[in-house]
Amino acid sequence: MTETPYFSIIIPTYNRANFILLTLDSVFNQSYKNYEIIVVDDHSTDNTNEVLSQLIKSNKIKFLKNKKNSERAFSRNIGMQHAKGKFVTFLDSDDLMYQNCLNDAYNFVIKNPKFNIFHNRFEIIDENGICLNSYEWKQSNDHLKDISTGNFLACIGVFISKNIYSNFRFDEERFLSGSEDWDFWLRVMANEKVIGKIDNINSAMVDHSNRSMNNLELDQLIKRRQYIINKIEHSLELHKTFLPYLNFMKASSYLFIASNAAAIGFKKEAQTYLKKALTLHKGFIFSPRFLITLKNILIN
Q: Lowest CB count within 10 Å: 23, 24, 132, 270, which one?
């Protein structure tokens, strides 16, 4: 009898033939072995099929291919539909798992069975493996307020139980791509309220010029943020949960927009959204993001 996988690792991919084998190798090298890998190809036009052919034939991965390009949210949803694990975790096809990632996750579940969602820390590295930034969420006692501030989770290194991945789906609006994970976690956290944490750096994002998060367009960012806030305001359940944090959420979004606008040289837009943020939450004037944004407006 085939053992039911404890973890299902869902990897959406699109034209990442030159990266995905490194991602998969990082999973194959895990010290904990009871897992399945589900690769969902979003109708790639490169040689992804050829690169993965031997792994598909040997059943080392489950390979699914979308009939048309439909973005990451759709691919993650397809992956969750086919998952069999007690927990699901996500990797982009240019991310890495460190060797003890799954082992630490398994031990965390055994010791903390109450959590349906938990995460480890991750870092951002360059293509030579040099750490550019070690990311850590400064966890407060109010996890709903934390997720209202913005998406501290991303998708990398987050684990969700079958109870969650059987009942929640990513919003598949194409324009939302880039913020679809924050929208997802807001809805999950409205249900769960708390999230567990493994205080180890067990995952890495590889920074490179083709990474989609490096190609943000300001108008799309504004549209995505407003879409999510509108959803919060018009959903009875979400509005009830996040009402105490709604102005804080809006202010955080305005500050995030301002920081991105300033970083790419749109000073007027940056100033406008910085003022909007401070109108709703004056406390941001002491935050590192505010100070960096102001520096970019004044100096660059």
A: 132
